[in-house]
TrEMBL record:
<dbReference type="GO" id="GO:0048586">
    <property type="term" value="P:regulation of long-day photoperiodism, flowering"/>
</dbReference>
<dbReference type="GO" id="GO:0006950">
    <property type="term" value="P:response to stress"/>
</dbReference>
<dbReference type="GO" id="GO:0005634">
    <property type="term" value="C:nucleus"/>
</dbReference>
<dbReference type="GO" id="GO:0042752">
    <property type="term" value="P:regulation of circadian rhythm"/>
</dbReference>
<protein>
    <submittedName>
        <fullName>Protein GIGANTEA-like isoform X3</fullName>
    </submittedName>
</protein>
<dbReference type="InterPro" id="IPR026211">
    <property type="entry name" value="GIGANTEA"/>
</dbReference>
Length: 254
């Protein structure tokens, strides 16, 4: 039923896609609709969503009026669609298209520190699926290396904001940010399936991808140190940061 919208005439398809983000009636069926679309044509689904999202995605700014709430709802739905597509690791075509839309992913996660759980949670969910997508991408071998690098660049860019979320007033935000960081740490141990490469006469069965040179633990610990010093300077408690560091097996240097 819903997947046919992506095979309608240009006008009808445009009307459907615009309503997909703006109409409340689609909120409850968006996941089922997306699954149907992806099954029929993953590449077309991802392309349509990226094109529409690039037009509809709004800045994450704090606004208490009706217009501000509408902007947030549109952003939440856009991210929901992207997250569901990226979770489907059985459709590499859609993952490639989404991972290649680096500017869109940066815009979608550019408001993590805006007050409000409703604003922060969707962005953390997007970072979580990004971190979890690294492993299946690397299983593609050499063809997945550049995609993995793009995903890692997004995670690295948003690392300071993710660490700052560890001291968020919302327990849900703190838990999700910890989960994101745990998944990021896990990418350090992932190896890329690839053809054997002759390295000084050695033919390894696996090859680390270029983003593997990132020392994620060191970077996270550095961000934790910055955040703890900032909290102490402003007279705030570092209890949540200390607890998260312990859970992640990270140390904090002051």
């Amino acid at each position: 039923m819903y997947s046919s919208a992506f095979f309608m005439s240009d006008h009808d398809g445009r009307v459907f896609r615009e309503s997909f983000f703006s109409c409340d009636i689609f909120m409850d069926v968006v996941v089922d609709a997306l699954c149907n679309v992806v099954s029929a044509s993953p590449a077309k689904a991802a392309t349509a969503i990226v094109l529409q999202a690039e037009r509809e995605l709004q800045p994450w700014i704090a606004k208490d009026d009706d217009q501000g709430q509408k902007m947030w709802r549109i952003n939440q739905r856009i991210i929901k669609l992207i997250v569901e597509l990226m979770r489907n690791h059985e459709t590499p075509e859609s993952l490639v298209i989404l991972a290649s839309a680096s500017d869109l992913l940066l815009r979608a996660t550019d408001g993590m520190l805006v007050d409000g759980e409703a604003c922060t949670l969707p962005q953390l969910e997007l970072l979580e699926v990004t971190a979890r997508a690294v492993k299946p991408v690397l299983e593609w071998g050499e063809s997945g290396l550049s995609i993995a690098d793009g995903l890692s660049n997004l995670l690295k860019c948003r690392l300071p904001a993710t660490v700052r979320c560890l001291s968020h007033p919302s327990a849900h935000v703190r838990a999700l940010s910890t989960s994101v960081l745990r998944d990021i740490l896990h990418t350090s141990s992932i190896k890329s399936s690839s053809k054997s490469v002759n390295i000084n006469g050695i033919y390894p069965s696996y090859q680390y991808f270029s983003s593997g040179i990132i020392d994620w633990k060191a970077d996270i610990e550095k961000c934790l140190g910055w955040e703890v010093r900032s909290q102490l300077a402003s007279g705030q408690s570092t209890q949540f940061l200390q607890a998260a560091a312990k859970e992640l097996s990270c140390s904090i240097s002051l």
